[in-house]
Structures are given as C-alpha cells and as structure tokens.
Amino acid sequence: MSRRHLASRAWYDSLRPVRQGGHEVVLLEGGGEFFPALIESIDAARAHVSLETYIFSDDPSARAVAAALAAAARRGVQVRVVVDGFGTPRLGGEVARMLAAGGVSLETYRPEPRGFALDRRRLRRLHRKLAVIDGQVVFVGGINLLDDHVDPNHGALESPRFDFAVRVRGPLAATAQLAVQRLWWELSIVNQPSRLLRRQAREQMELSAAVVGDVTPAGSVEAMLVLRDNFRFRREIENQYLRAIGRARREVLIANAYFFPGRRMRESLKAAAASGVRVRLLLQGRVEYRLQHWASQAMYDELLRAGIEIVEYRASFLHAKVAVIDDWATVGSSNIDPFSLLLAREANVVVEDAGFAAQLRARILAAIDEGGAPVALSHHARRAWPMRLLHRLSYQLLRLAVALSGATAGY
C-alpha cells in the first residue's frame, strides 16, 4: 500500500483555487451512480465524514444515505451534516430519526425565521453539495439528497432528473477538508443560542491548531476545487467560466438548469461564437420555476442572433450545472444565474483533462439527442405577443430581485 501524504493547514488558510495534478476524477451521472458511490465511501470511513447539502429529503434515496451516516457514527466515526435552512427548512421523518438515533451531528445554515421576514440576506444560501470522507475522498456536484424520480414541487417524475457529480481523490481533498471544517466551526459559533456559548465556541475554534487533509496523488488528472462565497471569492466561479470561454478554440458546451447570465457572460459567449467557436447551451425545457424559466427565455433572441445554439431538455427536469470547453470541464453546484454566481455558497470542480472532458461531453450530447428540443430563431421570433410580454416582464422582475438582493451583476 502506498504511503499517504498529509498536509496540515491553519484553519484560516486561503481557500483560493489552485490547479494541481495527481487526481483521480470519476464522473457520476444522476442519483443512480452518485448515491451508491457516496454510500460506499461512507461505509468505508474510519475517522470522519462531513456532508453539506441544500436539500436533505425524506425519501428512499435520502434514507439510504442517512442510514449509512448513522451506521458510521455508531461505529465511532465523527459524522457532521450541514443543511441549508431554506432548502431544508425542517429535517423530519425517518431521516431525522435515523440521524438522531445514530448520533450524527447536525447544523443548519441560516435557519429560516418563523413567520414573514423581509430580509434580503435570506437569499444568501448554502447551495453547494460537498462531502469529504476521511479528508481523502471528495464528492462535489449538483445532486441533492433527493430521489431522482421525485420533485419537491411537482411530485413523481416519469424520467430521472438530469444531473452530475464527481468523486475526487488527490490533493484537492485537503482544500475540501479545510472548507467543510471551517464552515462547521463558523456555524457552531453563529448558531449558539447565547453570547457566552458563542464566545466559548469561538475560543475553541481559535485554539484549533490545524486541519489535516490528504494530498496523496491518486491519478494523473489536473483539477481544482473552486468555491464561491460572499467574502473573498465572490466571483471566482464566474471568472473561471469567463477565462475558459475566452480561451476556447473549438467548442463551448454548457448544460445549466437556471440560466440567467449577466452582461459579461453573455458578451463572452457571443464573442466566442463570433470567432468561429461552436457554442451550444442545453437549458431547462420544463417549467420548474416560472419566473426564472420565462426570464431565461427572454434572452434567447439575443443569443440565437449571435449564432449560439440553444437546446431545451424536456425528457425530465434538468438540474445539471456542467460545462465542457475544449479540454476544460467543470461539474458543480453553481447555476449561471445571479443567485448562484453572486449570492450563494457554491462549489465546483474544474478539470483540465481531455479524457474527462470527452466523457462529460458524450453524456451531454446523449442528453441532447435523447431529450433535447432545439430552439430555432425563426420559431422563437414568431412567438405571440402575450408570451413576449410575459418574457419581458419576467426578465425585468428578476433583474429587480437581483438589485434588491444587494448584488451588482451588470444585468
């Protein structure tokens, strides 16, 4: 067995993304591939499991994960789970019972206030889906702990939700371990009910000497973990996209659930298309959230006239947040909209590897062939005036929501 290489980092060290070699990156499509891989890693955990998710549902898939977490905690593994207070306002049912009985530690990111509260900070959510096992295995992607065949707003689905995650081993595990540890410390302070307990938690955090993560090479792939927060890395994911699009020579292929890009992103995509790069967007074809859906369609005319191809995914709900730009690829939790790019905590993995890019590209193209409906400029331009008005109003309302949130996006 090869010797592990561990890195000790102060809790306040930078989480700036650094591209490094030495990774094994496994692409996981949908819950059918993601949940078994996650459970297998949790079952093998020896020391600690940290899991962050926007939605932790109470359905068969989520219960299987909860059972694995509880079993790990019972055998002495330190298990910590963080859920978002809006995505999971109340963790209940069989999942809550299993986690509590197993001794799993649970924190909530920004618990929702009781009753009505007009506070723009409520839009600052924990949207990243991140799991770190023993500081060695990392899962990142767009998949919530939610069954592929169930939608919280629309009920049972005939076809599974289209989404991706990756399992990563290698040096970026140390950054992921530091990220989840730091957020846990922050929440253990913020969520304390009294000033005395908050002070004691802060003192304990400051006394913690270091976070140990695994930097053992596990493969040959270059990758990095890219985090977005509201402090030092406000535009980090967006900037990674812009740099990759600006360097594109052959193709830009993006599959994104909630697509409402700002001016910089739109101009970058149009410039790529003008330079001869093939630009294709796979976007949501089913109406999940009406305002976002119609606001996104309001941008179609501008993009189509610039030579950008748009395909709507209609086989099921599209939840993916992935892209392939030549040999550059990303898989993560961040939509290309202001709520992800400017407000939420997000996590993406960026991979620079021709083999991985080709694999992800093939999966996206298969989705286009099997469930995609191309949008023609001639057809879109002839839409009835009530629909035109609806698109325009939705666009302006979403812009207003961005402005009220305090974000500045250039929309």
UniProtKB/TrEMBL annotation:
Keywords: Cell membrane, Lipid biosynthesis, Lipid metabolism, Membrane, Phospholipid biosynthesis, Phospholipid metabolism, Repeat, Transferase. It is an enzyme of class 2 (transferase). Pfam families: PLDc_2. Its EC number is 2.7.8.-. InterPro entries: Cardiolipin_synth_ClsB, PLD-like_dom, PLipase_D/transphosphatidylase. It is a peripheral membrane protein. HAMAP family: Cardiolipin_synth_ClsB. This is Cardiolipin synthase B. It comes from Quisquiliibacterium transsilvanicum. The lineage of its organism: Bacteria, Pseudomonadati, Pseudomonadota, Betaproteobacteria, Burkholderiales.
